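Incident review: delayed structure delivery

Summary: a single-chain prediction request sat in the queue longer than the usual turnaround. Root cause was a stuck worker, restarted by the on-call engineer. No data loss occurred. The affected request and its eventual output are reproduced below so the record is complete for anyone auditing the incident later.

Affected input:
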Amino acid sequence: MIKTLLTTTIATALILSCQPNSHEHEMNKINEITNSVKQKWAPDKRVAIFNIDSQETAGIITLTGETNLPEAHNDLINQLKNNKINVIDNINTLPDNNLGEDHFGIIRLSVANIRSKPAHSAELATQALLGTVVKIFKKSSYWYLVQTPDDYLAWVDASGITLVTAKTADQWKINAKIIYTADYGFSYSAPRADAERVSDLVAGDLLELLSDSFDYYKVRYPDGRTAFVPNSEADIFTDWLVSEPNVDNIICDARKYIGLPYLWGGTSTKNFDCSGFTKIVFYLNGIVLPRDASQQVYTGHPVDTEDGFDNLVPGDLLFFGKAATDSTRERITHVGLYMGDTEFIHASGLVKINSIDSTRSNFNRYRYDTFIRARRIMTSLSENGIQLVKDHPAYVIN
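Output delivered after worker restart:
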């Protein structure tokens, strides 16, 4: 009898040991749901934050981490409830409470460098222009995690921005402003070119307009500095906004930057990378493109290039990289602007014009061999991932 009881007990223990632990099953389910929610709401970490962890201690499961998407946070919690999984929710929904009410910043430099990590030694991820309103999500030492109007997420140091509340950010958008339209120049402490310089300026910079003094605009910076900008080098922002984007102007602007050197992370008329070049050229014509080539490739309308390049029209974007294989995904690594007559302009080492016609002297074999697809931007204004500056909440209040 004892031997039979012992045998039964051992057999039961063996069976139970082969069954998955209930907590382990719950943790696996939580991870499955978390990954599903992340894929739905935040598949691209460049433009959305959703970093969630789960831990089990003494039978209690706790969620930690952070997200800037309240909708994703709520979706996760609701799905867990629907699956009858009880958790302690310690997820931090950004902006971080330590910021107080300063959830926005206004770029105060002609060009602010924005890095992949909160350190000057970190990769230059992108740049933002003077007067641009950015969202702020958290702080690390004297660095701020910001989101630019193209939704890109990266870190700017405190000297690059003026911290403001939502109310002040909205007031900045409402205020009369000028947009700097020359490629490069300066603002001055008095309305004359021999006055002391206040700062440099690049195309696309925004400044509050105080008055029109002789041949100069009197302006104010986001941090309160005042200066004078030559009227010949700037436009009234509201007048500039109503101009309709024009392909000829886009290509004309692109040609102005021939010879400028390539800079990884550059998105200003000081220096560009390939997608920074297309981005700034379109921005100066009132169009907001996503930051990277691998994001721009999903905007606009597809152009049929299956049988060659005859369907291309000026203003199309050409994308290059590595095609997908049975074992690897497609990789878009470069973008250029089609100019017509088989030629495209792009930033590669420097801004230059190449051809996709093998009979031309400027034919680029490498780009021809790595061409992936083309997208038409000008037929998708205000849709298909293309935004207009005049409608964008980072620049105006509609």
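Verification: DSSP finds nine helices and 28 strands in the chain.
Action items: add queue-age alerting; document worker restart procedure.
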